[in-house]
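If it is no trouble, might I ask you for a protein's amino acid sequence along with its backbone structure tokens?
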Amino acid sequence: MNSTGNRRKTRTVKVGTLEIGGQAPVSIQSMTNTDTTDAAATLEQIKLLAENGCELIRVAVPNFEAADALKVITSRSPLPVIADIHFDYKLALAAMDNGICKVRINPGNIGGYKKFMEIARKAADLGLAMRIGVNSGSLERKWYDLYKHSPSEALVNSVFGFVESLEKINYQNFVVSIKDSDVLKTINANRLFAVQTEYPLHLGITEAGPLETGMIKGAIGIGTLLAEGIGDTIRVSLTASPVEEIKIAKKILQALKLRRFNAELISCPTCGRCQVDLVSLSNEVESILEHYDLPLTVAVMGCAVNGPGEAREADIGVCAGQKKGLLFKKGKVIKRVNLDQLLNVLSLELEKERIDHKKGAGKDY
């Protein structure tokens, strides 16, 4: 499920068989943290990320050994592979010969205009996509003074210079990325760029930090822009396992109703009325729901008296008291069970819903 009704209109960029922008859903990407020269380990991680919902994968190419390993990686990868290049434009040229679908560069640190355009011309000749990025760490020197006073304007001015160069050679199969470690600078810069062009945007907060901090920054920065219809592909950058990046990206998209990956959980906060370990119960239900790609809202409530009423909008819900639990649907109690049977009863009800959904029962959720 996806909703694109309020999305900013953009061009369509093809990355292998995947489309970014246009009418395509907002896609999720991440980056491997393996040594790219170890093709087997890199492929193993790519497959794990694909299983968790990753749709595009970026790999670091810091040397020519890594560029050469792309031959094996791209031939066996279940996902379109993006080569991540910094500083040495020759690495980008080599990577494009080895099966990648897209090359990611920051033009400001690639060694000058001529080298940037050599990469662009080769990408155009081979029909490959590019992501051109600008952030505070790769900003051209000529924009340093402006950045001190108006960072968003400096970032956008910089990227427009590169966009204009690509337009001169009639190359348009590219995505733009404007990032900063500062959430507000990132939001403002992307807003400024979005109103002036139709090029797709890759969203993220660079150097966002470890799991909890990075998750919050990513949700605020990426989520704010997506809620405004801005953004076509995302990465939640974390100092953590890339699997966590995928999980959080999916939650952001589902919370905004841009994509649906599984049944949605709502649960009440803990309070003095709770007579059970509501945190553990909610976590267990969330784990169960990961296996159900259903258009359902499932509630977990910690008060068996008020729960069904408070969560009457949920399709299915459970309430837990000290010894007894309730299973309810649309606010109506359908079963009372011992607390130790509550999760089993919920799982059985979800299975019934899965079967009905496959049969096309036409239920209005």
Remarks:
- The chain has two domains: 12-255, 264-358.
